[in-house]
Design brief:
A hairpin with a 5-residue loop joins strand 6 (147-151) and strand 7. The N and C termini lie far apart (50 Å). It is built from 6 helices and 10 strands. Helices cover 31% and strands 21% of the residues. The mean pLDDT is 88. It is an alpha+beta fold. The strands form 3 sheets. Strands 2, 3, 4, 5, 6 and 7 form a 6-stranded antiparallel sheet that branches. The protein has a two-stranded antiparallel sheet with strand order 1-8. A two-stranded antiparallel sheet has the order 9-10. It has 2 domains: 3-62, no CATH class; 79-166, Pdz3 Domain (Roll), CATH 2.30.42.
Length: 185
């Protein structure tokens, strides 16, 4: 089955089998995404990761973070920008580093691809999944972006070209810490 056929099945599932299909009827725009898949497939070929991105962009219309699309198999590799962020006011702060060595935790990101965080948040609000800035998920946006502008410790700004790293499963850290005689963290 080609990607157009797979996407047709996804549309059918979201319109008939998805638990929220009645409540969210009309929230999506399947024709736009189907034509995009069909066009890319016909004209230039459609890499698996690009297909995943298009499907997840379509699924974002339903505003259900439990609904997403993954491809599996040995030939399919997921990529990440190598760090995670959280938003506070109109700045993203690097909160974790997995593979990117040019940044440190606490680094402030002022813009992505030349667009400031506030503007980008308004433009991409359906992909961020949360109405509260501190809980937004910026991974999908960062993973499809090219550059970030960061504030250095000396007060100067620098633009970095983002690198993509092969994603690896995270390592869970299970810890327990005694705060006092009555409290464990």
């Amino acid at each position: 089955m080609n990607y157009s056929g797979i996407f047709s099945e996804i549309i059918s599932i979201t319109h008939h089998d998805y638990a929220g299909c009645d409540d969210k009827k009309g929230w999506d725009n399947p024709i736009y995404y189907f034509e995009k898949v069909e066009s890319l497939e016909r004209e230039e070929g459609l890499p698996p990761q690009k297909f995943v991105d298009i499907v997840n962009d379509y699924l974002a219309d339903f505003q259900d973070p439990h609904m997403y699309f993954l491809l599996t198999g040995n030939e399919i590799k997921a990529y990440t920008c190598g760090f995670g962020v959280r938003r506070y006011k109109n700045v993203l702060y690097v909160t974790e580093i997995s593979k990117e060595t040019r940044l440190t935790e606490g680094t402030q990101i002022l813009s992505i691809d030349g667009v400031n965080i506030e503007e980008l948040s308004e433009k991409e609000n359906r992909r961020l999944w949360e109405p509260h800035p501190e809980r937004e998920n910026w991974n999908a946006i960062l993973n499809r972006s090219s550059t970030i502008e960061v504030l250095q410790d000396n007060g100067r700004t620098t633009t970095f070209t983002l690198n993509m790293y092969e994603s690896s499963p995270g390592k869970a850290a299970y810890t327990i810490e005694s705060i006092n005689d009555h409290t464990l963290l």
